[in-house]
Specification:
Elements (H helix, E strand, L loop, with lengths): L2 H39 L11 E2 L6 H12 L18 H13 L3 H9 L3 E6 L2 E8 L7 E6 L10 H8 L12 E6 L17 H14 L5 E5 L2 H11 L5 E6 L15 H17 L1 H8 L1 H10 L1 H15 L12 H14 L2 H11 L13 E5 L9 H7 L3 E6 L7 H4 L1 H12 L4
Parallel strand pairs: 4-5, 4-6, 6-7, 7-8, 8-9
Antiparallel strand pairs: 1-2, 2-3, 3-5
Length: 426
């Protein structure tokens, strides 16, 4: 080959290489941009009317692919400077959970679990509300509405629906049966996201009253913990039409109704509340004051979303910061994945801005109230306090184990509590 041939071929090869690399880069950019654009849209449930319409979950596969891509590209911080959870979720604990999420977890299993229950959506006060509705085969069953909190979801209650609706198959009697309604809070899960301010606890309670009436129930009871306790308390405060009684696993007594000098029991409970406010409440203050800002981080990073939620499973379960000792990894990741796939980090945080410093507070109630106290709760509420604000406190029990996510952690004990508490309202 002549020098002239060599000089001609080399520039041509270089040009081909440069153009080829540019084409690959452009294709990669287009694929990334397309994936990011899809992820930004997230999953949107179908529109609703006032009709009660059947609903099934089917997350598009491209969202699951995008999730795996994002998990694989995580940029991790350095490890914590302490040997406990006092600075947040330890690095290696979260790495292990995220590795499982990326390589082994299958959302489709959780999706099938959800779809094994009858689900519906209906429009109430301009918002599409998602809910599970499982009727008991026992016609004398007592209707009950169960409300989750943050960072929970309807997944919290899946293990108790069977025992509540079909007690004869789960160690109970026919007279223990419930018709069960489990809604997703506005801005959570497959309920619509409010676009305007105003969806606070009292408004949600009014929506639940409409929902129970729409389902044909003229006499019913309600249960909740966390934000669910807030909604349930407001149902009682509003004396919702048809509501016979409520059950709380987190009675809202902030501040506690203390009279005179606190005794030793009261001082211990007050100290728990003070410690919570000082060391564990940062998430609530951020979400109550700047939900939009924290929302950018959690909506963009699945690992950020996972850490934000997993921390609470560590702090709030009765597990000594070992949540997988009371919940399976799949249960934890089902809940985290629901927030991620529905892109509800921001919309769920806004409930704090709506109600945390206003409606989530001590309310005197004149409706029958039952309380179950689980030992791993954020603080230990006291019966004398409850008697001061609940004029018809008819049931109080301190359970042997379990924490903030009572139905999720200890479904058997939770079911027993509801059976015992509401027996007199049959």
């Amino acid at each position: 080959m002549s020098d002239t041939d060599t000089r001609t071929i080399e520039p041509l090869s270089r040009r081909r290489a440069i153009f080829g690399a540019a084409a690959v880069a452009a294709a990669g950019y287009a694929a990334t941009s397309s994936s990011d654009a899809f992820a930004a849209a997230a999953y949107a449930p179908p529109p609703t009317t006032s009709d009660v319409s059947p609903f099934n979950v089917r997350i598009p596969q491209i969202q699951l692919v995008d999730l795996k891509r994002r998990l694989a590209a995580t940029r991790w911080p350095e490890r914590e400077q302490v040997s406990d959870w006092s600075q947040g979720v330890p690095l290696e604990r979260l790495r292990s959970l995220v590795t499982h999420w990326e390589k082994e977890y299958d959302w489709r299993r959780g999706e099938r679990q959800l779809n094994s229950f009858p689900q519906f959506r209906t429009n109430i006060d301009g918002l599409g509300i998602h809910f599970l509705h499982v009727r008991s085969k026992h016609e004398t069953a007592l209707p009950i509405i169960l409300t989750h909190g943050w960072p929970g979801s309807v997944f919290e209650f899946l293990k108790v629906i069977g025992p509540l609706t079909n007690p004869t198959a789960h160690g109970g009697k026919a007279e223990d049966a419930f018709h069960v309604v489990v809604p997703s809070l506005p801005g959570f899960g497959f309920s619509d996201k409010p676009t305007d301010k105003g969806w606070n606890l009292p408004r949600i309670a009014r929506a639940w009253t409409i929902l129970m009436k729409r389902l044909g129930y003229d006499r019913w009871v309600a249960q909740g913990g966390d934000w669910g306790a807030g909604v349930t308390t407001w149902l009682a405060q509003q004396r919702a039409a048809g509501l016979a009684a409520i059950h709380l696993n987190l009675p809202i007594m902030f501040p506690p109704p203390v009279e005179g000098t606190p005794n030793s029991e009261e001082r211990a409970s007050i100290a728990q509340l003070v410690a919570f406010d000082k060391t564990l409440s940062g998430y609530a203050k951020v979400q109550a004051t700047r939900p939009q800002t924290i929302g950018y981080a959690l909506t963009d990073s699945p690992v950020g979303q996972a850490a934000w939620i997993y921390e609470k499973f560590g702090d709030w379960t009765d597990s000594n910061h070992d949540p997988e000792s009371v919940l399976t990894r799949e249960e934890v990741l089902n809940n985290i994945s629901l927030y991620w796939l529905t892109s509800t980090a921001t919309s769920s945080a806004r409930l704090y801005a709506e109600s945390f410093y206003t409606d989530f507070s001590t309310q005197k109630l004149d409706l029958p109230v039952a309380v179950s106290v689980f030992p791993g709760e954020l603080y230990r509420p006291l019966k004398p306090w409850a008697e001061k604000i609940y004029s018809q406190l008819f049931y109080w029990n301190e359970v042997s184990k379990g924490g903030h996510f009572a139905a999720f952690e200890q479904p058997g004990l939770f079911v027993t509590e509801l059976r015992q508490a509401f027996r007199k309202f049959r």
